[in-house]
Amino acid sequence: MTTHNAPTVRTVHTVHASPLGDLLLTGAESPAGGLTLTSLSLPGQRGAPAARPEDRDDRPFAEAHRQLDAYFAGRRTRFDLPLSGTGSPFQRAVWRALDDIPYGTTTSYGELAVRLGVPRAEIRAVGRALGANPLLLLRPCHRVIGSDGSLRGYAGGIEHKRRLLTHEGALQPTLL
């Protein structure tokens, strides 16, 4: 009897230095060498994955590093990377809808719910799905704000949300 083993996927991570601090990127690397990003977390993010030092491998993340550097330098407004966040079908639908929010703009939780066909009474479900987004920044949940213009509910922290929206020109810098 012959046994065929399925090719194994290797989980790897890297750290990307950014103006927000060190970003933790994790990904699944196929035996053929292709990488699919599974998470990007910000410093201090609640629910961020833990990374084991022995799983660090910067090589497969070269394109992600290049695109993140271009974003923070103001030369990139969209990411073109293979993404795979684990979530329910509803969560994945909400995360895909984030890709349609243009750089430098914001939308409200209610507007996003309307686009998704979510009844008004279920808007909180949209907020919960955004809170579970494993690919912060790459899937731009920071562009979703309260209907009154307030910055709310960002797993990476409200100050990071403010800095990202200011970087993108959606908010004016404030003088302290």
Automatic annotation (TrEMBL):
<protein>
    <recommendedName>
        <fullName>Methylated-DNA--protein-cysteine methyltransferase</fullName>
        <ecNumber>2.1.1.63</ecNumber>
    </recommendedName>
</protein>
<feature type="domain" description="Methylguanine DNA methyltransferase ribonuclease-like">
    <location>
        <begin position="13"/>
        <end position="84"/>
    </location>
</feature>
<feature type="region of interest" description="Disordered">
    <location>
        <begin position="39"/>
        <end position="60"/>
    </location>
</feature>
<keyword id="KW-0227">DNA damage</keyword>
<feature type="active site" description="Nucleophile; methyl group acceptor">
    <location>
        <position position="141"/>
    </location>
</feature>
<dbReference type="InterPro" id="IPR023546">
    <property type="entry name" value="MGMT"/>
</dbReference>
<feature type="domain" description="Methylated-DNA-[protein]-cysteine S-methyltransferase DNA binding">
    <location>
        <begin position="89"/>
        <end position="170"/>
    </location>
</feature>
<keyword id="KW-0234">DNA repair</keyword>
<dbReference type="Pfam" id="PF01035">
    <property type="entry name" value="DNA_binding_1"/>
</dbReference>
<dbReference type="InterPro" id="IPR008332">
    <property type="entry name" value="MethylG_MeTrfase_N"/>
</dbReference>
<keyword id="KW-0489">Methyltransferase</keyword>
<dbReference type="InterPro" id="IPR014048">
    <property type="entry name" value="MethylDNA_cys_MeTrfase_DNA-bd"/>
</dbReference>
<dbReference type="Pfam" id="PF02870">
    <property type="entry name" value="Methyltransf_1N"/>
</dbReference>
<comment type="similarity">
    <text>Belongs to the MGMT family.</text>
</comment>
<keyword id="KW-0963">Cytoplasm</keyword>
<dbReference type="InterPro" id="IPR036388">
    <property type="entry name" value="WH-like_DNA-bd_sf"/>
</dbReference>
<comment type="function">
    <text>Involved in the cellular defense against the biological effects of O6-methylguanine (O6-MeG) and O4-methylthymine (O4-MeT) in DNA. Repairs the methylated nucleobase in DNA by stoichiometrically transferring the methyl group to a cysteine residue in the enzyme. This is a suicide reaction: the enzyme is irreversibly inactivated.</text>
</comment>
<dbReference type="InterPro" id="IPR036217">
    <property type="entry name" value="MethylDNA_cys_MeTrfase_DNAb"/>
</dbReference>
<keyword id="KW-0808">Transferase</keyword>
<dbReference type="InterPro" id="IPR036631">
    <property type="entry name" value="MGMT_N_sf"/>
</dbReference>
